[in-house]
Fold each of these.
Amino acid sequence: MITGLSINSTMLGNFILVTASFAVLIVAIRLFAWDKITGIFEERAAKISSDIDAAEEKLAEASSLVDQREQELAQGRIEGQKIVQDAVDRAKLEKKRMLEQAKVEIEALKKKADLEIEAEKREAQEKLHVQVADLAVDLASKIILEDLDQQAHSELINRYLDRLGEE
């Protein structure tokens, strides 16, 4: 039994020695390294907190920038629509102006054509009067069987034209 007791006492002695060493180690750590260890943890916690705050700020800035870009994009769309509408309005005005100009030109061409027709009509009537007068003189000279002199010829033409004008 002595051997059993000596093993137990050796184990007990080892246990006491290990426990005492551990207690000394804890006290030494507490005295010399605890502030440094907790300082490292506190610094790490502060850095993590700072990084989180910085990330939140960046996120807020990014969100703000996204909102700003969306507003600029919306404004760009509005301006684009305005430019297109202005172009459409200008095209409509140009079309209207061109149509009005074409109407004016058409009216001028119609008036010119009417004047030309009227002039040709007068010319044709004058030629017809001359031809009718010549025929009338020829007919009259055949009827009378004599040649008319120039004065009688003119009088005959004038009388005949006067009668044609009355009819």
Amino acid sequence: MKTPYFLSMLALASVMPGGHVQAQYPERPITMVVPFAPGGGSDTLSRLVAQKVAEQQGASLVVENRPGGNTTIGARYVARAKPDGYTVLTAIDATMLFNPVLYKELSYEPSGDFDPVAMATYMPLVLSVAPDSSIQTVEQWIESLKKGQTDYAMYAHGAMPGRIAMEIITRSAGITLTPVPFNGSTPALQAVLGGHVPVLIDALAPSLPHLKADKLRPLIVTTQARTPILPNVPAAGEAGFSGVDLASWTGFFVPAGTDPAKRQWLEDAFVQALSDPDLVSKLRQLGMDVTIKRGAEFQQQIDRDGVRYKQVITDAGLAGTL
């Protein structure tokens, strides 16, 4: 599925956001591959960024959805694409960090098949209970675990950040939890509201409408500092979970070997788009906090988190289970 943004291309040259001129690039539409179906958070982010880049740079961008395989189908497509600067992958942490550990065989190599362009969003997870639950705080939840309430609901196909966060929380608290996977955030939410599972851990974006409507009561977000999206909700660091600092990121990548000047054009253009206050406001309303990291800094975080998450996934017995 393709959605073009028909804004005029510059005829002879494209002006780079930094004020330089990259002759004859882009000459044709740039394809942004989203490894999810239309309508989700990554898809919405990509379309908003594509539109903003088009407005600011006079370029034309096309969003193409290639869902399936926990983002592996879209990632494989971009990994095999010609590194000519005209194919960009919208990836999440699972694409680059979790899949290489979870899958026995993977059709792409994150460290060798892609070059990072920029991180776009950094979205904490939120631990929530039903509004009529007797649990008011995360400390009370920990106490309830000692009474045998050890299940938690999660979205099976997008929940690895939640599973990792829970693994870290349970280790620091000296407890054991049982994940109850559901085929989507909505069924997981209904299980918690129906009293079948006591708590839900999910990304902030899908939880936010329910939190705003008081259909969920947030206990903590899974970062060391509070998020401006939920400024009144304690962070994990405040609750004594010093090792819990986890959020689900979304970023942009090009095939490895892409011309450095073109990759730099994309980095500058995407960073400028993500710096637009109107775009930041729209994404924050959707539960996505814009956190910009340029390619080199983004790669450093990927390398750093890759080591940490691999250890947690392996210790949880999940490595090579897909």
Amino acid sequence: MINEPIHVTDAAFEKTVLQSTLPVIVDFWAPWCGPCKMIAPVLEKIAKEYAGKVIVAKVNTDENPEWAMKYGIQGIPTLLFFSNGKIVHRQVGALPERALRDIVSQFLEVVNSANTH
């Protein structure tokens, strides 16, 4: 069970994110990005708390620009919320922890209700 954010390369993106049976939150970030550093600890907590329910994946856009370009990522951090290989939600910019947690729980509610019907 994965209980921490995983760093995903362009080469591994399809297998890790698009083919995942679990919902995936992808954090497009870069080492020089201040707001990215602000949300990183929150994403680490979420990865631990939701281990087995959601995967938190981090894509360093400096080293792995391919998927960021495919998805039209213009500002970072951008979080893409994937379920069954499709984007369910897009969040651009850093958020306070409570707001980010609200989005994650809404995302999982939507995903879980879609999977049970």
Amino acid sequence: MSKSLGLPKPLSRASGDRVDWNLLRTFHAIAQELSISRAAARLNLSQPAVSQALKRLEEQLGTALIERKGPRFQLTAAGIEAQRLANDVKSHFLQLDAALEATSEQVVGNVRLLSINGVSCEAYDRALARLHRECPGLALEITVLPNDEILSALEQRSQPFGLAISRADYPWLAQQRMTREHYRFYCGPEHPLFGQPGITVDRLAQEPVISFTSDLLGGTLNSLAEFRHRHGWNGPVIGCSANSQEVLRLVLAGFGIGCLPHPVYEQAQHLLWPLPPEEVGTVDISLMWNKEQRLTRVEARFLQALQEACQQAQG
């Protein structure tokens, strides 16, 4: 490693050979999450184990990889470079898995999928059922994350697939639309407008709102923000979450009105009162992957099954 990373002295080749790649993998999760606790949850490890792994890796490399600032921390220059190298190493291991799998006749292995929460899609469900019947050796690991974190992981090629909202066409991104969600505003039984007929759009202009964290102009739920801006809704945002179930929780608690996708309304329709207009906006949910990622045989089979199910559903 170069002196520009702030190392006390360059590592010899023998020192580099002694770096434990399991420690580097743990650091990769820490660097992505910027949190020991979230990295521990992601890796199914205890927080002390993750902290100890970080300490051992720093000892092996001879430099600090993170700089603590109270309860938060940021990557040092060496940490940023180590994260880049960890991404490369992980990508090479995935390529090795794909090369080795090519010698096998069976479709066996793990598929990792990052997903936003609350996706409702019959084509997706049918594809999973078919995959399980035809490829019983396929194991699926689904991790729920915010939309932006999914796109970041796909860009870095640290995960093969994401099921998320995408409004932009990135040059590295391939996507297959899975379903379209329709959004509408609702209030819960604790809200004074619950059960009232004849409510107009103008009547809601100053109502407190529960929003999604991505419900911003230019965000992934841009259409919801555009609606409020277009109709002059200036009510305060009194709560927000990236998770639709938590937005629902705040709406039911009476914090304010909230815009929810139709599948969430179907789950709790007896507790929600629809507000005008009938449709605020639509959002496409897509299966996404990095065009430059080399897929294993089992990952390619997973992609094929979902694409075929979507093509049949969309006719």
